[in-house]
């Protein structure tokens, strides 16, 4: 992989909805490695805007796990109290709401009252069928989400080596939600705005998040002062379990917290991840783990 160009900032962006697992560590390790190679600082941004799913012990686990695994970051909270006081996404609510109103003012969103079960009854893959696109529901009605008018288009994505690649907008993201029924901004919107706000110009994420990448680049084109289209992306392979499924919190993947309490050292955890990647050599740190994937 070409070492140029350099970047200013990348980020870790965990969601505090469960304990961090080995797949998270692989992603953090790759991010930290690429940051070191490209001269970028690392921001720790905790995606906590979904307050119903945010649990204090899971926020604390982010700090505990990063410190235990000796994965560095340069900007962002160092502990729970600083996170709550200065860095929670709640403090950027006004910024999110201004963006939503800008989208509304430009006629880029429509109201939708469909439930997940209603959509699933129409499409087995839960793909939104455009039911409310032309219904003219009021954006001020109760219990409606706001969806972005999307269309079939080609999205240009800047890669870490400076190339532009073109991908079709994923059908599964058509008319994706930008404001939820509770009135709060969606993940796709808060993620784009936060990356712009903090000056992130390199996003490293798993290859399962390609649809989100394309949706966010699309969304950024509708936002005032857009700088997100200049952001570069690197999508890495995922860590799989022994059934071939990706590790996830929702499926009960083994957490680093559990392994730590079992007496494992950070090197033993790194080596375990290495074995899952097919390596039989000891792995001492995040740098060596990332090299297994990137070299």
Could you outline the blueprint of secondary structure elements for this entry?
Layout: E1 9-12, H1 22-38, E2 41-44, H2 56-68, H3 80-87, H4 93-105, E3 109-112, H5 116-122, E4 145-148, E5 154-159, E6 164-168, E7 177-179, H6 187-198, E8 202-206, H7 210-220, E9 232-236, H8 256-261, H9 266-276, H10 286-294
Parallel strand pairs: 1-2, 5-9, 8-9
Antiparallel strand pairs: 3-4, 4-7, 5-6
Helix pairs in contact: 1-10, 6-7
Question: Main beta sheet: strand number and arrangement?
Answer: 4 strands, mixed
The topology string of helices and strands comes to EHEHHHEHEEEEHEHEHHH
Helix fraction, binned, reads 25-40%
CATH architecture of the domain at 9-106 and 188-294: 3-Layer(aba) Sandwich
Individual helix count? 10
Gyration radius (Cα, Å) is 20 Å
**Number of E-state strands:** 9
The CATH fourth-level homologous superfamily of the domain at 9-106 and 188-294: HUPs
CA-based shape: globular
Low-confidence segments, given as residue ranges, are none
Cross-sheet strand order for the largest sheet:
6-5-9-8
CATH domain fold name of the domain at 9-106 and 188-294: Rossmann fold
Helix and strand content put the structural class at alpha/beta
CATH class of the domain at 9-106 and 188-294: Alpha Beta
Strand content: 5-15%
- Taking the alpha carbons of the first and last residues, their distance comes to 8 Å
